[in-house]
Specification:
By secondary structure, the protein is of the alpha+beta class. Helix content is 31%, strand content 9%. The chain has 3 helices and 2 strands; from the N terminus they run βααβα.
């Protein structure tokens, strides 16, 4: 799409319950998605930041 930088919002990829989950159960499926995030090419990772959760720990937050 041609963007230089991307900020991820609403994609923490941790086991917190999703906001729509009335039963407030941990989202264990996050673990199946993490390898794909970890395999991102360095040139993508360098241009991405996240607002919260595991993706913020991995990619860094805005202004970090």
């Amino acid at each position: 799409m041609g963007f230089d930088q991307v900020v991820l919002c609403g994609m923490p990829m941790d086991d917190r319950p999703h906001y729509w989950d009335e039963g407030r159960q941990p989202w264990k499926a996050c673990e199946t998605f993490r390898p794909a995030w970890q395999a991102l090419a360095p040139e993508y990772r360098a241009r991405m930041r996240s607002m919260s959760g595991w993706t913020r720990e991995m990619l860094g937050g805005v202004g970090e």
